[in-house]
Amino acid sequence: MNTTQQYxxxxxxxxxxxxxxxxxxxxxxxxxxxxxxPYDAAKLADPRVDRWIVSHGARAFAYMQDYTVHGWEDHxxxxxxxxxxxxxxxxxxxxxxxLGHGSAFINARMQVLFAQGAxxxxxxxxxxNERAIAVYKKLGFETSGPAQKTRWGLIxxxxxxxxxxxxxxxxxxPSLRR
Length: 178
Ligand SMILES: CC(C)(COP(=O)(O)OP(=O)(O)OC[C@H]1O[C@@H](n2cnc3c(N)ncnc32)[C@H](O)[C@@H]1OP(=O)(O)O)[C@@H](O)C(=O)NCCC(=O)NCCS
Fold this sequence. Notes:
By secondary structure, this protein is an alpha+beta fold. 22% of the residues lie in helices and 28% in strands.
């Protein structure tokens, strides 16, 4: 289990499936997240992907996953350097949207990934997902190419690089809006 500032990241388990299915049925998630079942035992055991339930205080409110971009030969981030990680996430709890939590917990996980040696972090929102793209830009991501169709859907590739001295380029820690 990892704790970074006020966010707790614990590994997702099969016991979280009902929670994730409920979150994924919310319209604000369905608009931007695939309708597939969250995962099964085999996917959960896949070493290419780390899956996290994110809590703020005692309140679980988001799902996040990070993965090696070199786990699939046809992956659109396969060309990135060794150690590159991809990230995907959503806030499941509708009451937690738009308050700054997304920027803050994604930033928290990015700092851990950079500290663990990732030279670059990649993400791939739908080109029309303006809120997610705004958050990623705020966190130091830049668009790295045109929108493209992939077997995971239509995406715009975005990258955030670690600084040479090991710190990430952007952000003062984002603050919450209340
Ligand atoms: C994307 C997501 C994680 C962001 O988390 P969040 O807590 O809602 O976002 P924040 O409150 O931290 O920041 C939202 C930012 O987007 C901006 N924003 C909101 N709607 C916007 C829009 N339509 N166009 C441009 N910017 C927008 C806000 O102004 C805010 O920026 P600011 O802090 O500079 O004012 C969350 O909204 C979410 O889970 N959405 C549904 C699933 C999803 O899209 N997942 C991402 C898949 S790539």
